[in-house]
Amino acid sequence: MRVIIDNIYANIDINYFGTFSERIKIRFDETHPLYGDEFMTKYFTFKNKNTIIWGHDNKELQWQIIENPKISE
């Protein structure tokens, strides 16, 4: 899913990524000041379609879904 987080474009994927538990991975187009180039955790739950609660401290991460992302040619 293509999203914008803190004005930075990113891709969100949910998969096992070669592990034994499902994880969420966010890959940023530019380095995010808090999350770096990539963020991944297995400790997450969806609060709504634009927000996850993650980690043991219940931190929130919010995004805006890009409905029709442009594909560069």
What does this structure look like?
This protein has 73 residues and is mostly beta strands. It has one domain. The protein is 0% helix and 59% strand. The chain has strands at 2-5, 8-15, 23-32, 36-41, 44-48, 51-54, 59-62, 64-65. A hairpin with a 7-residue loop joins strand 2 and strand 3. The model has no long low-confidence stretch (mean pLDDT 93).
Q: How many structural domains?
A: 1
Report the count of strand segments. Answer: 8
N-to-C CA distance:
19 Å
The percent of residues in helical segments reads under 10%
Instruction: Please compute the radius of gyration using only Cα atoms.
Output: 12 Å
Structural class: mainly beta
Quaternary organisation: single chain
Number of helices, counting only DSSP H or I runs of 4 residues or more: 0
Overall geometric form: globular
Low-confidence parts: none
Strand order of the largest sheet: 4-3-2-1-8
What's the mean pLDDT score? Answer: 93
Described by strand count, sense and barrel closure, the largest sheet is: 5 strands, antiparallel
